[in-house]
Amino acid sequence: MSKATDPATLLKGLAQSLSSGAIRVIDLTHTLDPDFPVIVLPPEFGQCARFRMEEVSAYDHRGPAWKWNNFTCSEHTGTHFDAPVHWVSGRDLPDNCVDTIPVDKFVGPACVIDCSDGASKDDDFELTPEIITAWEAEHGQIPEDAWVLMRTDWSKRRGDAYLNMREDGPHSPGPTPEAVRLLVEERGIRGFGTETVGTDAGQGMHYTPPYPAHYILHGAGRYGLQCLNNLDRLPATGALICAAPLKIKQGTGSPLRVLALVTDDGGEP
Amino acid sequence: MTDPLNPPPRKNPQKRTRIPTRPMPMRSRAALGLAAAAAEGRFMLQTCAECGTVQYPPRDACGACLSVELNWTDVSPAGHLIADTTVRTSTNVYFRERAPWRVGTVRLDVGPSAICHVHGDVAADDPVRLVIKLDKSGQGVLFALPQKTTPNMEDDPHMREMTCDPKFRRVLITDARNENAPALAQALADAGASLIFVGESEAWRPYPHRDALEKTANVKIVPLDVTDTASVAELAGEIGGKTDILVNNARFVRPGGIMDRGDVVFARDEMEVNFFGMMRLAQAFGPAMRGRGADGDNSAAAWVNILSVYALSNMPEFGAFSASNAAALSLSQCLRGELIEGGVRVMNVFTGPTEDEWHQPLPPPKVLPAALARAVVDGLREGLEDVFVGDVAKDLIDRWRAGPKILEREMMDPGGQG
Question: How close does chain B come to A263, measured CA to CA in Å?
Answer without folding.
Answer: 36
